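Memo to structure team: turn this sequence into structure tokens by end of day. - J.P.
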Amino acid sequence: MKILIFGAGVIGTTYAWQLSATGHEVTVFVRKGSPAIAEGQSFHIRCKDEREKPPKTTELDFRPTVIDVLAPDHDYELIVVCVRAQQLDDVLPVLAQNTGKADILFFGNNWWGEEKIRSFLPAEKYLFGFSRLVGGWRIVNEINCIFFDNPELATMLGEPGGRRTARLEKLRGLFEQARLRPVVSQDILGWLSIHYVEFLGVIGAILKAGSYNAFVSNSGLVKEAILATREALDICKTRGIDFKKAAPSNIRVVQSTPVFVLTPLIQAQYKMPSIKQFFEENIEHGIAEIRLQYSDVISEGRRLGVNMPHLEGFANYFQ
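Reply from structure team:
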């Protein structure tokens, strides 16, 4: 398949590498003036794969075709949009004019559903997804990534409205072939909304504590994070999201387990090195997107009249 990965961050580059390794013709779109072009169209990848037993570390130079101009005659079959939430407004006009016959997989955080996208693209052009399988960070052309070993940390995919279409099955097979652990959601937009709020309580508590280790060792802050997470999930419920269809099992546990039982369980779980790495990297390298998420969620909660004292209590730490 001829695939364009739109965005050369950790997720985009890692998925480009894995899809290329299974024989697909993969091109990576980067911004004009990006070091990816200036430095010879090469990405240096360091990858820890926890799916392997024992975990396997790989280091290599990945040299995909790299472009900084998109045209409709490029003839891609699939475009995977891997940009941060705050970048989407700039990307949509480019996609509207230059995607030809390609299907477009929006592969990132989404709080607004189809609202923004419908202004630029017809519904038959796009579907949605998200990677919870891969984490990491990028510094210039160096990609440090990790494949997590947890069945719930997967490549989520879905059509708006939960339809099972031929292109969705084709996409699922594409990612299955590349060992990217695809899971089809009955309600991908609901899942994305839940994921958008899922970690804000924990991140707020980490920022308040001043460090990840200080957060994990403080049961009071862990309890505060749980209560803030429940408030954020209440916003999703008030929006009308069906948690039976959209919520992963860990969210149902957070909702239903008494706080005094959940607090020590989360403290123990969050001492795992990969979870610590996940949060620390996201805060260090993705704070602009996290601040947008917090602002979006707080604004929606206020609009809907949801009581959220613990979530709002972290406001100063997201500044």
